Amino acid sequence: MQGQQNETSLLVSTTHEVGEFVELNVAEDVQNSPLYNQDIAPTKIAQRTWHKGNVAALWVGMSICVPTYTLGGVLTAYFGLSVLEALITILIANIIVLIPLTLNAFSGTKYGIPFPVLLRSSFGLYGSNVPCLIRAFVACGWFGIQSLFGGIACHLLFSAFSPSWAALGSAGEVYGFFLFWALNLYVVIKGANAIKHLENWSAPLLLLVGAGLMFWALPQIDLGEVLATKANRPEADSSAPYLMAGVTAMVGFWATLSLNIPDFSRFVKSQKDQIVGQVIGLPLTMFFFASLGVILTSASTVLVGETISDPINLIGKIDSPLLVGIAMLLIIIATLSTNSAANIVSPTNDFQNVAPKLISEKRGVLLTGLIGLLMMSWELLKKMHWVESDVSVESLYSNWLLGYSSLLGPIAGIMIVDYFVINKQQLDLVSLYLRGGKYADVNMQGMIAFFVPVAITLMTLMTGSMSWFYNYGWFTGSITGAAIYYLLKVKRNTNLG
């Protein structure tokens, strides 16, 4: 009898609870499932070692980057806000985005599952690939954009000490891109612990450098005059729609991470640690570094004789090879910490979800790198003077902030309703990796709840009617998706009952 039980335990996977955690005991059924591999398997309890300091460091490392630095300029130039309105908007938006971030992190911490596996509950075992791939391609685009910034920093670092490298001009930026691109892939292939150590090491250094730059720039400007800079919009217009559009765009800045935060929270040691770490690490860091961008951009006229909103090119104007070299090295570290965590981990898991037995973590990382490279190829060709284009990287990512949040909002709303309202924080961990269990191959309720707000968004863009639905895309999308999903699930459960 004992032998028969042991044989059964080797064939049938089970789960067990330890405190607030649930752990999967993998047996032959899950091991051989086409929906499973070691990289997207639930983390063991022994692997969940990140504390609130690690989580806060993760957010510091991700938030301090070139796009964050330029957010104030994006909001004033593209969204018609004053400098003060822009900074307040950034702070409010990042407090708002903490809500889906902390809520969607719960499942990762409790069950140790990554984002694509969690989506199998709300979209189906194979239906989950639709939102996964949408999230993945957005991340690949951001990976390419951040690699461009990192490549410029590499070029300026080498140029500070090598006249022959400096003579390469924009071609040197392309070579720097490939160097930085490869460095990012290497860090992620090394695994979650490599990312944790990178963030822990870089976070205090980056905060110290940011504080130093702030104290360096403040004496060069009149802070009151900078904050009093008027909005770039008609004086007769109400500020409300501009502020709301700005908040929506800034929420969209981290809309991606609000979905795939389980990719990181699956390594956290408690729910308290993931909540406290995110509250400490995200809003103030984003506000501080965006403020630094506004101040340094204003000070750039005094410092170098022209207005420069890009920190890499601003620092590159300093007439000191040593200072430029040190600054570029720090920017490379900042961009590396952001890019590896925010833009490679998620698509790597998402691509594995498509075919876990064929796509390993290493292959997922390489696929992410290849797609990111292809998406930025037009800019690299421009830098080599092989093609001409008027499209700027800055306008590309500023337009993305609003556009992609319209796609990702419904996913966030569906995920939260599914986990907290429909399933009441109870998932069948074994069935998430096996066909024929609790979860369908395609969950039509999730698909309908996703595509309806997306269809409305496309209609507003084509017809010009209901423009508010697109302008406030993350909010309208998440609320609409959540409401439709809840109603469809309740109706289905009523019919089954």
Fold blueprint:
Blueprint lengths: L1 H10 L2 E5 L2 E5 L2 H4 L20 H12 L2 H4 L1 H8 L4 H29 L3 H9 L5 H33 L1 H4 L3 H20 L2 H26 L5 H5 L12 H14 L1 H6 L1 H4 L5 H11 L1 H22 L6 H6 L4 H34 L6 H15 L1 H7 L9 H30 L21 H20 L3 H5 L1 H24 L1
Antiparallel strand pairs: 1-2
Helix pairs in contact: 3-11, 3-16, 3-19, 5-6, 6-13, 6-16, 6-17, 6-22, 7-8, 7-22, 8-10, 8-19, 8-20, 8-22, 10-19, 10-20, 11-17, 11-19, 13-22, 19-20, 22-23, 22-25, 23-25
Description:
- With 497 residues, the chain is an all-alpha fold.
- It has a single domain, classed as Orthogonal Bundle (Hydantoin permease).
- The protein has helices spanning 2-11, 28-31, 52-63, 66-69, 71-78, 83-111, 115-123, 129-161, 163-166, 170-189, 192-217, 223-227, 240-253, 255-260, 262-265, 271-281, 283-304, 311-316, 321-354, 361-375, 377-383, 393-422, 444-463, 467-471, 473-496, and strands at 14-18, 21-25.
- A two-stranded antiparallel sheet has the order 1-2.
- Strand 1 and strand 2 form a beta hairpin.
- Helix 7 (115-123) crosses helix 22 and helix 22 (393-422) runs antiparallel to helix 23.
- The model is unreliable at 1-8 (pLDDT under 50).
